[in-house]
Amino acid sequence: MLFPEYRPRRMRRTEALRRMIRETVLTPNDLILPLFAVHGKGVKNPIDSMPGQFQLSIEYIAEMAKEAYKLGIPAVMLFGVPKTKNALGTEAYAKDGIVQTAIRAVKNKVPEMVVITDVCMCQYTDHGHCGILEKTEVNNDATIEILANIAVSHAKSGSDMVAPSDMMDGRVGEIREALDDNSYYNIPIMSYAVKYCSAFYGPFRQAAHSAPKAGDRKSYQMDPANILEAVREASMDVEEGADIIMVKPALSYLDVISKIRDEVDLPVAAYNVSGEYAMIKAAEKLGWVDGAKITMEILTSIKRAGADMILSYSAMEAAKMMA
Ligand code: PBG
After folding, report:
1. Site residues for ligand 1, CB cut-off 6 Å
2. Residue 162 Cα, ligand 1 centroid: separation in angstroms?
3. What is d(CA 310, CA 167) in angstroms, rounded to the nearest whole number?
4. Is residue 8 part of a domain?
């Protein structure tokens, strides 16, 4: 079909025609809201690098979760900012740890909400690495045992799904086994399977106080230049028992999302990370872009690339726009 017989503009003439042929439709069901829990009462600390986002004490976390659920968002992802840190990150699996407390608060207030918990050590270690440090190296096999403890402690506190974000080898299998040994057969694992070593995490590290004190994460997070390796990482996690495969970040990795969508038959999640959010907010503040429109365009593009669900700091804003 060639011009003038075929005219693509025919089907773009009116809003109703455009709606009829729209291929990707974003809904609040697609969104997961990340939240940062801190100790204390009545705490609502704005995060400078992420305008509109806060470190919240647990009563506010529960309230925010309730509001999100009312807007149609089915899940939250909880991160904790602990009071104390040490070399082994023991606060990450403390019974009264910040995430454990936040899980109970959310489940109490909105039992229907899916509570997903980030399983990692970097917020809890004094050196800021995602595992146990030996000199300058993170010890893989010692770390995955601790990650399994963290996952079980989250499940014990009522978490509905655990999401390991450390990028150690073999952690999905180790966590699956530990959950099963403790009879948590029904707790799924959302694996940060394809997580790149990205500068887009900068604002998050300010929010969660989780930047490494020395060195970087290049020996465990992936090289942004690689995509075949993404397929290997995802396939390993599928075999180890992952229930959802995540790609992170999202915006500079739409090709990876699309590739993973083609290669695996599990649901695919994409993490629209802190730096992606911060860039919109900064440009919006300068009056250079329409933040609301850009937000919807970005979220739609991530879904179009193949993501079945999107973790985004814009989740509330976007859900309100869809209401
Ligand atoms: C912890 C973790 C990070 C993010 C999610 N979990 C930071 C990191 O790996 O340094 C980043 C999220 C974001 O930037 O929004 N390992």
Report:
1. 118, 120, 122, 130, 165, 201, 204-205, 210, 273-274
2. 15
3. 19
4. no
